[in-house]
Design brief:
The protein is an alpha+beta fold. It has two helices and seven strands.
Length: about 130
């Protein structure tokens, strides 16, 4: 069967937008093929706002998410293969989905010693 991630991502994006909220993607910026502004990558990840007012030409096909956006005023074409997408959630309430259970998909990160030592940051919660 084809991977379910593209279908789920499209559906969740639509659901978030239908509820007048802002869809954010969590991306593993270290995955081969990811094209994102490296200045905005933190701990190997980047959070991307994919709201229609923030991006131009959003395309979510079965292989990747692509769009144009401005980062610090500089326009950039963003390309994210699906294997690099870790989660989608609504900025306003954190509801969404964490990915990582499909073959070829990275597992959600497990804390390491160095990450435990860092100050805690806001995190996603799994909503069933």
């Amino acid at each position: 069967m084809t991977p379910s991630r593209p279908y789920l991502l499209r559906a969740l994006n639509e659901w978030i937008l239908d509820n007048n909220m802002t869809p954010y993607l969590v991306v593993d910026a270290g995955v081969q093929g990811v094209e994102v502004p490296q200045d905005f990558v933190t701990d190997g990840q980047i959070v991307l706002n994919i709201c229609p007012t923030a991006v131009v030409g959003l395309s979510i096909d079965n292989e990747s998410v692509e769009f144009s956006a401005r980062f610090g005023g500089v326009p950039m074409q963003v390309y994210v293969p699906f294997v690099a997408i870790m989660a989608i959630y609504a900025k306003e309430n954190g509801q969404g989905m964490v990915f990582g259970s499909e073959p070829g998909a990275p597992d959600p990160e497990k804390p390491t010693e160095s990450k435990k030592e860092k100050a805690s940051k806001p995190s996603l919660k799994v909503v069933k």
